[in-house]
Amino acid sequence: MAGPSRDSDTSVTETAALITSRLDNKLGEVTESIQQLLAAEISELHGDAQLQELLHDTVVANVDTFFASIRHNIPVRNVEPPTAAMEYARRLAQREISANALVRAYRLGHRTALKAFIAEIRAANLERQLSMDVYELIEAVSFDYIDWISQQVIATYQAERDHWLENRTSLRTLRVRELLSGADIDVDAITEAISYPLRRIHLAVVAWCGESSDGDELAVMERFAQKLAESAGAKENPLFIPVDRVTAWAWIPLGAGAAPDAVARIRAFTETAKGAPSIAVGNPLPGIDGFRRSHRQAQDGRAVAIATGAAERQFTAVSDPGLSVAALLGDNVAAASAWVGGCSDRSPPLRKATNGFAKPCGCFWAPARASRAQPRSSTSTSTPSSTASGALSNVGDVRSPTTD
User: Fold this and answer.
1) How do strand 357-358 and strand 247-254 relate by DSSP bridges?
2) Residues 197 and 236: beta-carbon distance below 8 Å
3) Residues paired with residue 201 on neighbouring β-strands, in sequence order
4) Rounded to whole angstroms, how far apart are CA atoms 128 and 119?
5) Could you give the 3-state DSSP secondary structure of residue 89?
6) Residue 365 parent element (H or E)
7) CB atoms near residue 299 (< 10 Å)
8) Residue 125 region by backbone torsions, left for phi larger than 0, else alpha for psi between -120 and 50, else beta
9) What does the pLDDT look like over 240-267, one tens digit per residue?
10) Which residues does residue 367 pair with via DSSP β-bridges, in sequence order?
11) CB 179 within 8 A of CB 185
C-alpha cells in the first residue's frame, strides 16, 4: 500500500484509522492470541468454562473498544468501560483472585495488541516517517486506554471485594454465633461455611484495643491473630470474627503436637510484640464442645482483666496463676462452676480450702462459699472444701481431636 504522505496530523490519524480497520478483519485472531498468552502466563486466571468465556468476552470487548477509539479518533476520556470487563473484575474479586493478576492481564494484552499493530504497519509499506508517526499515535492512545481501563477495573474489583468480604464476614459471624449457641449443627457444613476446620483442638482468643485515628483497629487485630496462630504452631489459618470496631474473637486450630505449649508460645510472642492488642485466651480444647468452652474461657478472661483493674494487661490466660475472679463471681456458684470446670479441663478438682478460699489447680483463687448450702451435721463428714469440690468439678481433659 502506498500510504498518504505526511503532510499533516490529519494524514496520521487517517492512516492510523485505516490500519485499525484492516486489523478489524483479524479481530478474532488478535483476541485469540491475547487469551492464549494470558492462559500461559497467569495461572490464577485458569478457571471453569464460564469464567473462561467471560475472559474471552472481556478481551474482545477491550480490543474492540480500543480499536474504535483509534478508528473514530475518540478521546479515551470519552470511552465507556466495557460491561464484560467490569463484570470480569467482579468475578475475580468474588473468587479471591488477586488484583495483581488482573493488572498483569491488561499489560500482557496491551503488549500483544501493539505487536499486531506493528505487524500491520509494516505490511502496509508506508513511508518511513509516516510509519513512525502512526505507531507513536497508536502507542500513545493504547497507553492512555490501558491506564484508564486499569483504573476502572481495579476500582470495580476493590468495591466488589469489599462488598463480598462484608457479606461473607456477616454470614460467617452468623454461623459462628449459631455454633456458640449450642445448637445442633452439621460439622462438615459449618466447616465449609466458615472456612475453618472444626475437627481440631481449638485455642480461643478475645482481642481488644483502644481506638486509633486511622480507624484500622480490626485490620491490625486480624493481622495479629494470624501471627498468633503462626507463633502457636498452627498449620491452618485462624478464624477471625469482628465483634465491634475495637473487639474481635478468634480461634486457632491446633494439632495434638502443638496444643500442649500453645498458650506459652502465644504468651511469649505477645509480650515481645510491638503494638499488640490486649488478648485473653482459653485452654486448647478439642472438637465442637472445645470450640465453645475455650471461647467462654477467653471471654471470662477478658472480663476478669477488666473487672480486676487489669484492662491494660496485654495477655490474660485462663491458666494464669493468681488470676482473681472473686470480684466477678462472689456467691455465683454456677458461674464459678463454669469457670473452674473449664479451667480444670486439664486439672484435678479443688484442693483443700485455705483461709476461706478453695484453691483449684493453681489457676486462680475462687471463693469457697458453696458450703453454705449444706450446713454441717454431727453425722456429716463433708467439709466446706469437699462441698465446693463437688460443686466445682472437672468437665473434661485435653486429648486428641474429637470427631463430633
Assistant:
1) unpaired
2) yes
3) 254, 286
4) 14
5) helix
6) none
7) 16
8) left
9) 998 888 889 999 999 999 999 999 999 9
10) 357
11) yes
Contact (CB, 8 A) for 282 and 293: yes
| SS3 of 290-355 | HHHHHHHHHHHHHHHHHHCCCCCCCEEECCCCCCCCHHHHCCCHHHHHHHHHHHHHHCCCECCCEC
C-alpha cell at 93: 474479586
Q: What crossing angle do the helices spanning 217-232 and 262-272 adopt, rounded to 10°?
A: 130
- For 204, phi then psi, to 5°, come to -85, 145
Looking at residue 206, the DSSP 8-state letter turns out to be E
User: Among residues 284, 321, 325, which one has the least CA distance to residue 302?
Assistant: 325
Cα Rg for the chain, rounded, in angstroms?
33
Report pLDDT digits (tens) over 366-401.
Answer: 333 333 334 433 333 333 333 323 322 233 333 333
pLDDT digits 0-9 by tens, 324-352: 443 344 334 344 444 444 444 433 333 33
Please report the domains of the chain, with CATH numbers, ordered by start residue: 9-165 (1.10.490), 201-317 (3.30.70.100), 326-391 (no CATH)
Angstrom CA distances, 130 to 18, 94, 100, 113, 122, stand at 13, 46, 37, 20, 11
Could you tell me the three cell numbers for 351?
484442693
What 3-state class would DSSP assign to 260? coil
